[in-house]
Specification:
397 residues, mainly alpha, DNA polymerase, domain 1, hpI Integrase, Chain A, 3-stranded antiparallel beta sheet, 16 helices, 6 strands, 47% helix, elongated
Amino acid sequence: MTGTHGPQVQPFEEVEPMTHLTTATQATKPPKPYPDFPLFAHATGRWAKKVRGKLHYFGKWADWQAALQLWKDQEEDLRAGRTPRGKGPGLAVAELCNQFLTSKRRRVQTGELVQRTFDDYFGTCKRLVAYFGKHRQVVDLTAGDFDALRSHLAENRGPVALGNEINKIRVVFRFALDQGFIRDPVRYGQSFRKPGRKVLLQARNERGPKMFEAREIRRMLKAAKQPLKAMILLGVNCAFGPTDCSRLPQSALDLNGGWANYPRPKTGIMRRCPLWPETVAALREAIATRPAPKKEIDGDLLFLNQRGRPLNPNHDLPFRLLVQALGLHRNGLGLYTLRHVFETIGGDSRDQVAVDHIMGHSRGDMASVYRERISDARLRAVVEHVRNWLVGTEGTK
C-alpha cells in the first residue's frame, strides 16, 4: 500500500555481506562530524536515525555528507510517517500547488476570481502539501493514496465539507493535466468521490434544520452589543453572512435612503437590499463606535476588530459566545444561519426572484440572463415580509 496512513510496508534493504558486517562491528565507530550532526554511527557501518520508533539508514560512515543529504531529503516524509519518495525530475506536489495558486492569483487581480475562492484553494493546497509532502511526484500518486487521503479528510469533516474539499482537490490536479505538466490524468480510484445524495440527506436529517426562530433572534438582538448587533440585523434583513460583514465597505450603504448595494464576495453577483429602520439605526451606531483603521487601505471597511484591522470572519465574530450565553447554541448553527432564515421566511413572500436577488443567487436560466432589474417595490415587499415575521404578530410565535 502506498497510502500515507495505516500500516506501511518498508522496502527491503540490501543485505550486507557477513564479512562486511563483522568488520564494521569490530571497527571503531567514527565520531559525529560536528556536534549537531543529526545521525549516529550504527554498528553496521552506516549512519542511522530512529524516527517514530523505527531505525532508518542513510549511507556508509565514509561519506557522511551524502548520508546527511539523504536524511534532509527524507526527513519530512519520515517524521510524518510517510514512505520517503525521491525528489525526481517530474512535477512535485508543492510545485503544482505553487503553479496553481499563481494562476488563480492572476485571476483575482483581473477580477475574474474573488479573494474568498482563492483563500479556499490556498487552504486546500496547504493541506495537500502537508499530507503528501513537498517532493512527492504527482505521477507517483495512486488510487491507494487518494483512498487514504479521503479517509484522512473525513476524520474532521461532515459530508458536505468533505465533498467540497474533494472537488477542490480534483480542480488542482486537473490543472496539472490542462497545463501540460503531466501527460495522463491522475488516477483517483473509485472511492475518491463526493458522498452520495443519500448520505447528504441522512446527515441533514440528523443535524436538524439550520434555522433560528423569531423569538431567538429577538433575544440575540436584545443582548448583543455593537458591532455584533448590526451584523445580526444585516444577516436577517439582507442575508449577509460573516464574509459579507467582514468585507462590507461603508460606500456600499445609503443610510439616508435605506439601501445596501453590495456584490456578494463569493460570486461577485450584485445585490440590492432595502434596509429596515432598525438596521439603519444599528449601522449608524456601529459606525460611530468603530475603531480607527490601522491601515489606510481599510479606511472604508464598516467593521474592524479592536486593533483596527479587518475582521477574520472565522475568528473575530463573537456570535458563538452570544448564542452560548443565551442557551441557543446548536451544532452547525452560526451567523451564516441567518442566510437560511432569510431564504426560508423570504420564500413565503412568494417572490422567489426577489429573494434570489437579495441572496445573491443566480439560477443560470434564460430568465435570469434576460432580466436586467427587479423593482424596488418587490425587494421592499420581501424584506418587509421578513421584518413582520421577526417583530410582528408572526414573530411572537
